[in-house]
Amino acid sequence: MNQDFVTVIKKLIEEQGKEVLSNVAKLKALLADYTRGDYKKESRLLLQAIEAGVQKAIETADNLEICKKQQIRVLREEHFLAEEVAADLVDMLILVLKEQEKEKNICKDCKKELQEEWKTCPHCSSGVTRREADVIGSNLKNTKKRISLTPVPKKKKTKKIIIISLIIAIGLVLSFFYFYQYFYQFMPSFLKEVFPQRGHTSGTTSGHTRGVYSVSFSPDGRQVLSGSRDGIIKLWNVASGREIGTFTGHSSGVYSVSFSPDGRQVLSGFRVGRIKLWDVASGREIGTFTEHFSGVSGVYSVSFSPDGRQVLSGSRDGIIKLWNVASGTVIKTFTGHSSVTSVSFSPDGRHALSGSSDGTIKLWDVTSGREIRTFTGHTLGVYSVSFSPDGRQVLSGSIDKTIKLWDVTSGRVIRTFIGHTSSVTSISFSPDGRHALSGSIDKTIKFWNVASGTVIRTFTGHTLGVNSVSFSPDGRHALSGSSDGTIKLWDVASGREIRTFGEK
To answer: DSSP strand E in 2-52: where?
Structure first.
């Protein structure tokens, strides 16, 4: 990537991020005047989450990697891009304006009722504040366009030209796909590899079409689960590497997947703030949990309790929720973070662990919902947290490129693991607690000695950042999911790649 291009992107994120923060401040003032009750509380939580996201985009602007290939795709994969934050702001503003329409228009100064068409109050000559909300909405939409990484097409002068152009474009696209599908069977093999059919990646028979965010082994180690930005969850046979099931029904990217302790159910968290529960045998959706505020797009992490009766979820709205699996109802809500990226139960199920983009890790009492302790030491956001098998230690991976080992009782750092050259996105303890796996945006997986904090070996093979890693139940194999759309199985002892799932 050209250095000048990177500089421009950094400048856009910083400048437009500050402008969005300014509009958020104005929006807070509007909420104070015009919204009440539960909606006001949800809106305030949303604004706090958006502020944190924009601030993180500004802080991490200097960490954008200079990549040689697929530059735009790499940039768009980042969770904290200002473009995505601005989009959420625009959507949220629309919700606020709609909510205001349900209420009487009250003068900010004299508190008397106003008519919809009045631009100034006839009682005290004050300007109607609702007009200010319209101005902010316009500013935010313009901000979204300016920081977009893709060019914004200029508007045509007449609606007629736009409609005709749209019809022609749709016709050309449909014609292309029709003839492409028909003539594909006659293409020579080398062209099929260069231009794979829609829904498949080159060299695969059934892989994901977009980046893989989360991977997980089944409790017996015979199956593998993967969740992707393409909105699909896939079930794989470990021995053959073949796809044996697909769970469809998500309207957006799947951020997190998890097997139940008995392996009979699957949990998934996805981009629009919902969680789904699935039956593994039939692939049927059992239920949907919808208490997270959907306007803040993204349940980043889900986890079953050791007995399988409860579920933890962490979301971009900064809230952790404890659910009853059987009823699908919320048992308890934990608050204290700005945006929750990772959650985990302790082995005995009595405590919960959470990592956040605010750079902290928190330990919670599951029964009371009380915060027991906050672990501080990372200089940037925390992407992943994990309990050791005995529950006495905790591992955390951060955007600051480090992994930290913590003592649960005291909350102090035991040691820091240094070796990755970019953000650490995922960490996992081995079943015996003696080793650890880590995945990073630097495209590598590292196998660590926990006692010494040294790297034993590094697994390489992914072409884009690694988003998720997991040990097999026997500790002999490692699993990784990447933004390149692949899932790989590794031999831990040798570091050899055994297979890529879905590959011929």
So the answer is: none
What 3-state DSSP class applies to 215? strand
- Residue 116 burial by CB count (10 A; 0-12/13-18/19+): exposed, middle or buried? exposed
What does the pLDDT average to over 61-72?
43
Return phi, psi of residue 370, to 5°.
Answer: -80, 140
Q: Is the pLDDT of residue 178 over 60?
A: no
Contact of 365 with 354, CB cutoff 8 Å: no
Which one-letter DSSP state was computed for residue 228? E
pTM of the model: 0.61
Q: How many CB atoms lie within 10 A of CB 248?
A: 10
Question: In this structure, what DSSP letter does residue 62 have?
Answer: G
DSSP 305-338: -TTSSEEEEEETTSEEEEEETTT--EEEEEE--S
**Tokens standing for residue 183:** 């003539």
The pLDDT tens digits of the residues spanning 398-428 come to: 999 999 999 999 999 999 999 999 999 999 9
Of 42, 50, 44, 60, the residue nearest 22 (C-alpha): 50
Answer whether residue 477 shows pLDDT above 50: yes
3-state secondary structure (DSSP) of residue 142? helix
For residues 456 and 495, the answer to whether their CB atoms sit within 8 Å is no
**Short-list 396, 484, 479, CA closest to 445:** 479
pLDDT for 156 beyond 50: no
Distance separating alpha carbons of residues 448 and 153, to the nearest angstrom: 49
Q: What is the mean pLDDT of residues 383-390?
A: 96
Give the highest mean pLDDT range of 107-111, 131-135, 291-295, 443-447. 443-447
Cα(50)–Cα(80) distance, integer angstroms: 10
End-to-end CA distance of the chain: 32
**Strand-strand pairing, 233-237 and 243-247:** antiparallel
